[in-house]
Q: What sequence folds into this?
């Protein structure tokens, strides 16, 4: 491992050998001023230029967060800091040409947790194999990133509920102005993310101020429908303030509360939200009707915003299996139809129509689904697959190209009960399927062919806007809803799981946000 500097000499990183290829690594680069003190709950300010060479050989801290209750085995608690959390990491095969496609990763974690320093997001292998510049970004989470203070604090806090997204936009501006010094092409940026990270990408597609900051987008298990109304966000804010022993008259005290007290109140709010849902609790989400997000993102996309952005979008087959198999008490609960109906109701399916979902699933499977199977499928469709289908449809007629996938390789974990579970595709994309961090899900049985194919397809999409699979054409989504099935033997299907999509299209009401 040796020192590395981009031509500007402003930062010092290291050079490491990854799969026999030298990769330059720069860690913990600040892209904005610290969001603490007087900047708490305020939009990010661009990082001030400094003359001294910055040591970027160690990871920066994550945004403030509570420990995850269902973190993968062996996961160490993350180091976080309110002061220094707006940082990014860069992996690049070369720093001299400024012509390589740039892939910018947004981590998931329900807008509550996660970090660009997690080992699964190490971009070295992807950069080495694909020749792309890989960037991973931290952004504000939880209350500090998404608490809607506009109604209680007034002027200056109109966008406090969208700060995590504004952080990402500031990071993209930093990349646009600086990535050429790290070998990247600022005009060829692909934004990609998973779960809440993909939802952030989907929301950015609907934010007017994002135009021109990225050329392509990849959404892994995310939607453009993770948002709340101002009314609902204000209610959540008032509940949060009460947990901090504050009311409207004393709301300004939240600006100076110790961050640990904010996290304690946040954890209680998450606990309450979790009691009411079988999906991951999401008490903190972007707010629509605000200066930076005037319209629901899906409506903005349907109206042509970011129409020229190429989009690659997909989900995993068994997105809901973690919620069913690992939530205490759920796996042994016999009342699956009612639980499935509650999940579907939250997605806008009238209770009276819920039995029709089981009938559609029966037609798809050619047999009656087991109870857990019904609940898992309802979660997968309500939270992930059908919102993704709606975004694909909203892109109809877009100037950019649109591609769809369904990841179906089954994890051998827990005797195969998890199936193609949520987040299983991440180690394949980052080429870490045989890493210790992926061992819980892959059990050392992950096919190298899938990792090579997916990482290659993602990189090809970043390079030229068309994903490629070995020996197999990946057609655009329209006009036949063409979808790449990602498994040991990939194939293209037209409108997979059509019965379930048609059920949602026929009965779904727009849910209250």
A:
């Amino acid at each position: 491992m040796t020192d590395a500097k981009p031509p500007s000499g402003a930062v010092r990183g290291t050079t490491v050998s990854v799969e026999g290829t030298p990769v330059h690594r720069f860690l913990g680069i600040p892209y904005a001023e610290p969001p603490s003190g007087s900047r708490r709950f305020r939009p990010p300010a661009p990082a001030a230029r400094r003359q001294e060479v910055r040591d970027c050989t160690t990871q920066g801290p994550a945004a403030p967060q509570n420990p995850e209750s269902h973190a993968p085995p062996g996961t160490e608690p993350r180091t976080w800091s309110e002061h220094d959390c707006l940082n990014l990491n860069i992996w690049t095969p070369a720093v001299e040409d400024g012509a390589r496609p740039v892939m910018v990763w947004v981590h998931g974690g329900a807008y509550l947790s996660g970090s660009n320093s997690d080992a699964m997001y190490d971009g070295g292998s992807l950069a080495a194999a694909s020749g792309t510049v890989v960037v991973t970004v931290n952004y504000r989470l939880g209350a500090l990133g998404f608490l809607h203070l506009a109604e209680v604090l007034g002027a200056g806090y109109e966008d406090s509920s969208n700060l995590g997204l504004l952080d990402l936009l500031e990071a993209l501006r930093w990349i646009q102005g600086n990535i050429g010094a790290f070998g990247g092409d600022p005009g060829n940026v692909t934004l990609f993310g998973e779960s809440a990270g993909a939802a952030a990408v989907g929301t950015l597609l609907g934010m007017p101020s994002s135009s021109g900051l990225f050329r392509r987008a990849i959404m892994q298990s995310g939607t453009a429908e993770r948002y709340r109304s101002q009314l609902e966000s204000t209610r959540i804010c008032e509940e949060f303030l009460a947990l901090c022993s504050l009311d409207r008259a004393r709301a300004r005290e939240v600006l100076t509360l110790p961050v640990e007290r904010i996290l304690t109140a946040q954890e209680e709010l998450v606990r309450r939200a979790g009691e009411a849902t079988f999906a991951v609790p999401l008490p903190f989400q972007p707010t629509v009707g605000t200066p930076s997000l005037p319209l629901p993102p899906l409506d903005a996309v349907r109206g042509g915003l970011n129409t020229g952005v190429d989009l690659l979008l997909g989900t995993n087959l068994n997105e809901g299996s973690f919620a069913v198999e690992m939530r205490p008490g759920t796996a042994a609960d016999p009342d699956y139809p009612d639980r499935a109906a509650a999940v579907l109701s939250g997605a806008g399916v009238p209770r009276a129509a819920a039995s029709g979902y089981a009938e559609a699933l029966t037609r798809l499977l050619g047999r009656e689904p087991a109870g857990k199977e019904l609940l898992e499928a309802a979660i997968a469709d309500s939270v992930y697959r059908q919102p993704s289908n709606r975004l694909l449809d909203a892109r109809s007629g877009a100037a950019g190209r649109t591609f769809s996938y369904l990841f179906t390789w089954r994890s051998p974990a827990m005797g195969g009960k998890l199936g193609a579970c949520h987040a299983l595709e991440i180690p394949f994309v980052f080429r870490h399927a045989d890493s210790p961090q992926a061992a819980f899900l892959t059990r050392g049985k992950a096919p190298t062919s899938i990792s090579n194919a997916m990482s290659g397809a993602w990189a090809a999409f970043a390079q030229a806007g068309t994903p490629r699979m070995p020996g197999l054409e990946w057609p655009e989504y329209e006009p036949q809803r063409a979808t790449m099935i990602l498994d040991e033997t990939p194939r293209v299907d037209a409108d997979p799981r059509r019965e379930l999509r048609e059920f949602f299209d026929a009965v779904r009401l727009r849910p209250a946000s």
Remarks:
- The radius of gyration is 22 Å.
- The CA atoms of residues 189 and 214 lie 5 Å apart.
